From TrEMBL, chain A:
Class of enzymatic activity (EC top level): transferase
Organism, scientific name: Pavo cristatus (Indian peafowl)
Transmembrane annotation, as ranges: 155-176, 183-205, 239-272, 292-318, 573-595, 610-627, 639-659, 679-698
Family: Belongs to the glycosyltransferase 39 family.
Membrane topology summary: Multi-pass membrane protein
Composition skew (Pro residues), residue ranges: 58-67
One of the record's GO cellular component terms: endoplasmic reticulum membrane
Pathway entry: Protein modification; protein glycosylation
Domain of life (superkingdom): Eukaryota
Subcellular location as annotated: Endoplasmic reticulum membrane
Listed name of the protein: Protein O-mannosyl-transferase 2
From TrEMBL, chain B:
UniProt cross-references to PROSITE patterns, sorted A to Z: MIR
Major location category of this protein: endoplasmic reticulum
InterPro entries hit by this protein: ArnT-like_N (IPR003342), MIR_dom_sf (IPR036300), MIR_motif (IPR016093), PMT-like (IPR027005), PMT_4TMC (IPR032421)
TM helices/strands, residue ranges: 9-28, 68-88, 109-142, 154-174, 186-203, 209-227, 248-270, 510-529, 541-559, 571-594, 606-626
EC numbers for this chain: 2.4.1.109
UniProt membrane topology term: Multi-pass membrane protein
Species this protein is from: Pavo cristatus
Name recorded for this polypeptide: dolichyl-phosphate-mannose--protein mannosyltransferase
This protein's UniProt keywords: Endoplasmic reticulum, Glycosyltransferase, Membrane, Repeat, Transferase, Transmembrane, Transmembrane helix
Enzyme class, first EC level, given as a word: transferase
């Protein structure tokens, strides 16, 4: 198949293949004499005409083997990365920061207990799996940070996270290498990430972030690799990278919803890609259609299937009732082993979050009192949509009642009370029962029907305001009658317990929701949970603008002098370099773009190459940074410092590309080529040394400090508290 | 010299009669019976308060928006001789005789009426036919919701006016660009763009969306100019000038204008009023009355022995002063934590004798001011003595009542020696004001967490019921309801008859505007993809017209609509009106395009015209049908019921026999 299509696609492919076919061949012959010394590093992209002259077959079956230097560099970088992440991994042997959540959730998987979290399940499932494989038995309670692990085996889970965290560095290295075709740029990026204290700290604990970032960088790397396979579409490696992109996207989405940003990045890249293909008139529409379908298959259908599969596994594994039940609908809960839905239990009027006998109500017709269940002669009357009913509280025999007095907390709503004696009340006790989305006269079913209770006299709707009553109300949730006739989940109720001796009992299987329903429901619950994570009043929260300037870190472990303290804070030198570079990049990109737009005569091919690296490669990375950073300014939920780390990865890649380009560009004006080379290489080495030295200064942040705080001159960190907002 | 005498003085006037007719019709539709109803209608109750405050020159801050709109409304009141004496407390309250209803409502109505000729000219400047321009103007004219919103003391019509003015001026400027750069008219329209933008932003922050859109379009046009190789021989100088003038007119002037609105606002309002407290103490002291009465004549600098009150600078959630009283902290809190059982220190939101403290030098015993007074300086270490109880402000390693991570602050009682007094404070001044000191670090070395410590004792708020009460309103709606107009707002109801006024759009126009947007998007996508494959369905200049019209109209709709999906504030149907205006402008554009490029034969053209006429008469019909609730004409119950075209509309029907 691939062979037969090849001739048709050849012209376009030939043009595209140039940067790729590059490799070792081009370096020696094609670099202009002006800068012979530089050829090895950035000369590997070459001019189009030379390719056609040489007639190099554009689609060599295997990409050229990387030179030994590059392989050694990759090995070195990987080794350093693993060493830095695994160094002192078992320390401290107690629960740190959010390990209390994710470790606990990992344990839930091992115990198969149902729980609820605002993030999709993949990350926690993997943690659970790692724990399970390494022999952790799920018995450690992970109650609060600082709890000692004692004999429990936590190293499997930490090691798994550290492993994924270590992979980020080679991924970033390969991505930058692919984008810039320059070894120094890739090395610079790798060293930035290896020696960033923040990245190390974040990779060393049982957290979702290393897993998320692994998939995220995996997706970016596969995308970039796939782009450079564009000269031989539908080849094996092309398919491999394309589908790997899809797999990684599913992984990123499956760990946290933040993965959506990388989906956006890949989506934009794909649209751009397809747009280019569409504009290529050498491609027939059929070929274009194939391209389109391939992307739909690998980037939409494949991730979607994997994503759903994750949830299927999640629900299959967690089959025991547990702490997450209350977040889900009654119908869903009925499926969990050990759930008490078939026992006496209910949701209540005074939305009491636990189930008890006071939650039971008797449904009566509004105009008669005959609802004596023991009287077997009266026929069963079914409640239908639109009926007017009265609800009598079983324990106290008072009717559910509302009137035009303001409710205790929500003063714009009406108060709801129990009224009357032994079921005798007044017309304010009448409620119209309506099923959402039904017509009049339909029957109402337990659990599955969502109903709304409209107060007949005032037209208001029974709802729970979500506010907690003070002490006198036993801190239960306020119930009000809202005069604002709108569809909100607050005003929907369903029948949970239903006791009627005249009616046959059903088995719970009748209620079983389908997988799609469960999937949708769990997403609604997660979205609601996420937007419910609002900062409390007066709580000093982290703001997105704090992040790039490394304004304030997070305490992972320990507060006092005697504690073993770990503080999540980026290596300030690295972060400030990154921040500075973003400004620098903006400047360079704008001037390059204007120069190209004005058609300034480029004096050498290098300038053209550089601008392409800056605008295309750098642009992609810069876009990634923007997509992973800007949306946080619009989020209402609580934000934390570690939310910036995905953006920080992109920012580091941008730093590598920008400085490499800049040094290359300026060194080329130096006349003797040896000086040029020395300046260029010296610059890169100086930057790397600077980073390594700063890491030497700040490494206790990641690897733990004991002893006096930095404000004390006798502390090893004395003098390093460069910002007052750092708390170490 | 005197050359002009050689030629006769000639005035040639060209009057576009259709434009004049449209303007007159617009004025009639908006201004007719303006003083009816003579009662507070909907948000007039809100804006009216501010007009009254302007009339009385009392300082206020409206946190919902900048002051230009309020000032314009107040201008109407000023011209009508309003004295500001009206209690704006209830929608539907009758206006007393001293309220010049007509002149208060005149400016918004005028702005609403002028939108009609603006719409006409925008389409002309977009190079569409006069017929299309006429259509756009008529659609705006017959849009019930815009009429309703214009006829009362509300800001939307003024906002829409400035938005359309900004768009029109930019288009005029851009069209002049081709042949007469740097001419007088060119400069005028460029300048007017900036001014109109800043006015739009000054009326409501929503204007920012259109401003951003125009900036983006201007940036795009400039970018194309950069790439215009024919200009390259003219040189970078010209381009530089172009860029500079644009930057000046579209960035610098709007910002300056915007600031000047606030300047005028502050200059007008010089009396102390209800909103003083959210401002700094220094500002409050500059207002007539209020704090100035206290600060007047008091010493500027704080010295040892001074008696002071300390106000928390942040002022959130409310302003409060450092306070102490004889009560002590409970020995045990409810959660079982212990306290020092020392005298409570709190932050108290009212002025009170217990807010007074005396600054004392730790090295001296006496509290009196020495002669000459020794001023307290940045970095000095002081003790603070509570004036009434004569105890020292103290902190120690005991957890604070609500924030266990911070230290407790108390007034030290020396009845047991077990706890050493830690009552030395370092004064760190951020700025020196008459009454205000900012104590932000305690002296003792163990006290590391100084910032949050401060927050702790300044934020002893146990009850916070102020929150979010306003997010629900009977007529609030979600952004999604707006496209289909699933919601309305009842503005006013006659106390006895069935006459009522609703914010309710012209159903026909809203539906057509949605169709137009969909058609535009689909056609554009189709053209775009076909052009990519080098298939050109329409001539290049028609394509350029189509694109530039879309940039303005679809762009305007998008930027004025989509951001509401991200907003968490209470939303109302009237927020959609600016977006709707842009969407309406799109209808004639799409119609003309369809007739020009898709109706090839004469027959289809005339059929299309017939359809358009039929459609337009249905727009007129809808206008006529809903005009009673637009103008508040009395209606019977049956007629009201007939008007309830959608179940979700809230038409107020009085119960019979009451």
């Amino acid at each position: 198949m691939g062979k037969r299509r090849l001739p048709a696609a050849l012209p376009a492919a030939a043009a595209r293949s140039l940067p790729e076919a590059a490799g070792t061949l081009a370096a020696a012959k094609l670099i202009p004499a002006a800068a012979p010394a530089l050829r090895q590093d950035y000369g590997s992209r070459r001019a189009p005409h030379s390719a056609s002259r040489l007639g190099t077959p554009p689609a060599s079956p295997l990409s050229p083997r990387p030179p030994a230097g590059r392989r050694a560099a990759l090995g070195l970088v990987t080794l350093l990365s693993f060493a830095s992440r695994f160094h002192r991994l078992p320390e401290p042997p107690h629960v740190c920061w959010d390990e209390t959540h994710f470790g606990k959730m990992g344990s839930y998987y091992i115990n198969r207990t149902f729980f609820f979290d605002v993030h999709p399940p993949l990350g926690k499932m993997l943690i659970g799996l790692a724990g399970y494989l390494s022999g952790y038995d799920g018995t450690f309670p992970f109650q609060k940070p600082g709890d000692r692990y004692e004999q429990h085996n936590y190293m499997g889970m930490r090691g798994f996270c550290a492993f994924l965290g270590s992979c980020l560095v080679p991924f970033a290295y390969l991505t930058v290498l692919e984008l810039s075709k320059s070894l120094p740029a890739a090395l610079l990026t790798a060293f930035i990430l290896i020696f960033d204290t923040g990245c190390i700290t974040l990779s060393q604990y049982i957290l979702l972030d290393p897993i998320l970032m692994f998939f995220l960088m995996g997706a970016v790397l596969s995308m970039v690799k796939c782009n450079s396979c564009a000269d031989r579409p539908f080849s094996a490696s092309w398919w491999l990278w394309l589908s790997l992109t899809g797999v990684n996207l599913a992984g990123a989405m499956g760990v946290k919803f933040v993965g959506l940003f990388v989906v956006l990045l890949v989506g934009l890249n794909t649209i751009n890609d397809l747009w280019d293909l569409l504009g290529n008139l050498n491609l027939s529409l059929v070929t274009f259609g194939k391209h389109f379908l391939a992307r739909v298959l690998c980037l939409i259908l494949l991730p979607l299937t994997l994503y759903m599969a994750m949830f299927a596994v999640h629900f299959a594994v967690l089959n025991k009732s547990g702490p997450g039940d209350g977040f889900f609908s009654s119908a869903f809960q009925s499926q969990l082993i050990g759930n008490n839905l078939h026992n006496v239990s209910i949701p209540e009027r005074e939305s009491y979050l636990h189930k008890d006998l006071n939650n039971l109500w008797i449904i009566k017709k509004h105009d008669s009192d005959a609802a004596d269940l023991s009287d077997s002669s009266s026929p069963v009357e079914f409640v239908r949509h639109g009926d007017i009913i009265r609800l009598e509280h079983k324990e106290t025999s008072r009717n559910l009642h509302s009137h035009q007095h303001e409710a205790p907390l929500t003063r714009k709503h009406f108060q709801v009370t129990g009224y009357g004696i032994n079921g005798t009340g007044d017309s304010n006790d009448f409620w119209r029962i309506e099923v959402v989305g039904r017509r009049a006269g339909r029957l109402i079913k337990v659990l599955r029907s969502k109903i709304r209770l409209t107060h007949v006299a005032t037209g208001c709707i029974l709802g729970s305001s979500g506010k907690t009553l003070p002490k006198w109300g036993w801190e239960q949730v306020e119930v009000t009658c809202t005069p604002y006739v709108k569809e909100t989940p607050n005003s929907l109720w369903n029948f949970e317990d239903h006791i009627n001796p005249k009616l046959p009992n059903i088995s719970l299987d009748v209620l079983k929701p389908s997988f799609v329903e469960i999937l949708l429901e769990s997403h609604m619950v997660m979205i609601r949970g996420n937007s419910g994570l609002k900062p409390k009043d007066n709580e000093v929260t982290s703001k997105p603008w704090h992040w790039p300037i490394n304004y304030q870190g997070l305490r992972f472990s320990g507060v006092n002098e005697t504690d073993y303290r770990v503080y999540l804070l980026g290596n300030p030198v690295v972060w400030w370099l990154n921040l500075f570079t973003i400004g620098l990049y903006l400047l360079i990109a704008i001037s390059t773009a204007v120069a190209l737009k004005r058609g300034v005569q480029l004096t050498s091919e290098h300038k053209g190459e550089l601008s392409r690296v800056v605008l295309c490669g750098g642009g992609q990375v810069a876009l990634g940074w923007l997509l992973h950073y800007l949306p946080f300014f619009m989020m209402g939920r609580v934000l934390y410092f570690h939310h910036y780390f995905p953006a920080m990865l992109f920012s580091s890649m941008l730093t590598g590309i920008t400085w490499d380009t800049l040094l290359k560009f300026f060194s080329q004006f130096l006349s003797p080529s040896t000086t040029a080379r020395r300046v260029y290489e010296g610059g890169i080495v100086a930057l790397i040394l600077l980073i390594v030295y700063s890491f030497y200064l700040f490494h206790p942040l990641s690897y733990g400090m004991i002893g006096p705080m930095a404000s004390d001159p006798s502390s090893p960190m004395a003098g390093l508290r460069w910002m007052d907002s750092w708390e170490f | 010299m005197l050359g002009f005498l050689k030629n006769p003085v000639v005035v040639t006037a060209e009057i576009n009669l259709s434009l004049v007719a449209l303007t007159v019709m617009g004025l009639m539709s908006r201004l007719w019976g303006l003083s009816y109803p003579r009662a507070v209608v909907f948000d007039e109750v809100y804006y009216g308060q501010f007009v009254s405050l302007y009339m009385k020159r009392i300082f206020f801050v409206d946190d919902s928006g900048p002051p230009l709109g309020h000032m314009l409304l107040a201008l109407g009141g000023y011209l009508g001789g309003f004295d500001g004496n009206f209690l704006w407390n209830r929608i539907g309250a009758e206006y007393s005789m001293n309220v010049p209803v007509c002149s208060l409502r005149f400016l918004p109505a005028l702005a609403g009426a002028l939108c009609i000729p603006l719409a006409y000219q925008i389409l002309v400047e977009l190079h569409f036919s006069h017929c299309a321009a006429l259509g756009a103007a008529l659609l705006i004219l017959l849009e019930n919701s815009l009429i309703t919103q214009s006829r009362f003391m509300l800001l939307e019509s003024i906002l829409i006016f400035f938005i359309l003015l900004a768009v029109l001026s930019y288009l005029k400027f851009y069209n002049l660009q081709r042949h007469s750069s740097f001419s007088g008219r060119w400069c005028f329209w460029l300048l007017l763009t900036g001014v109109a933008c800043s006015c739009a932003v000054g009326v409501k922050y929503m204007g920012l969306f259109t401003y951003m859109l125009l900036l983006a379009i201007a940036g795009l046009h400039f970018w194309h100019m950069l790439g215009d190789r024919t200009l390259s021989n003219v040189g970078a100088q010209l381009l530089g000038n172009m860029g500079l003038t644009r930057g000046l007119a579209l960035l610098v002037i709007p910002v300056a204008m915007y600031l000047s609105f606030f300047y005028v606002h502050l200059a007008l309002l010089y009396r102390s009023g209800p909103h003083d407290q959210i401002m700094t103490s220094a500002f409050q002291a500059s207002l007539e009355g209020g704090l100035a009465r206290i600060t007047q004549g008091q010493p500027l600098e704080v010295a040892y022995g001074s008696q002071i009150t300390l106000r928390n600078v942040l002022g959130k959630p409310m302003q409060c002063w450092l306070h102490s009283h004889t009560n002590t902290y409970p020995i045990r809190y409810e959660n079982g934590r212990g306290s020092s059982h020392q005298q409570q220190v709190t932050c108290y939101p009212f002025k009170d004798v217990n807010n007074w403290w005396i600054v004392k030098d730790p090295g001296m015993q006496q509290l009196v001011v020495s002669n000459p007074p020794r001023p307290v300086r940045h970095g000095h270490i002081v003790q603070l003595v509570h004036g009434i109880t004569t105890r020292y402000l103290n902190t120690h390693d005991v957890a604070a009542p609500l924030s266990p991570h911070s230290q407790e602050v108390s007034c030290y009682i020396d009845y047991n020696i077990s706890m050493p007094a830690q009552n030395l404070w370092r004064v760190v001044k951020h700025n020196i004001l008459h009454l205000k000191l900012f104590i932000s670090a305690c002296y003792l070395s163990h006290c590391s967490n100084s910032e949050s410590l401060l927050f702790t004792f300044f934020f002893q708020w146990k009850i916070l019921t102020l929150k979010n009460e306003d997010t629900e309103h009977k007529y609030s709606s979600s952004a999604l309801d707006w496209i289909t107009m699933d919601t309305n707002i009842a503005y006013w109801l006659h106390p006895t008859s069935g006459a009522q006024i609703h914010l309710l759009g012209n159903v026909c126009t809203w539906a057509s505007a949605n169709v137009a947007a969909v058609v535009y998007t689909c056609l554009s996508l189709w053209y775009l993809i076909r052009r990519r494959r080098k298939i050109y369905d329409i001539p290049e200049d028609a394509w350029q017209l189509w694109v530039s019209a879309g940039q303005i109209c679809v762009g305007g709709w998008v930027v004025n609509y989509l951001p509401f999906f991200l907003m968490e504030k209470t939303l109302f149907l009237y927020h959609y009106l600016p977006a709707l205006t842009f969407q309406i402008l799109l209808i004639p554009i799409v119609l003309q395009h369809l007739s020009d490029h898709l109706c090839r034969s004469l027959l289809s053209k005339s059929m299309f015209s017939a359809l358009v006429v039929a459609w337009f008469s249905s727009v007129c019909f809808a206008y006529r049908t809903f005009s009673p609730v637009t103008y508040g004409e009395p209606l019977s119950v049956a007629e009201l019921k007939d008007l309830r075209w959608k179940d979700s509309w809230n038409i107020l029907i009085r119960k019979q026999g009451r």
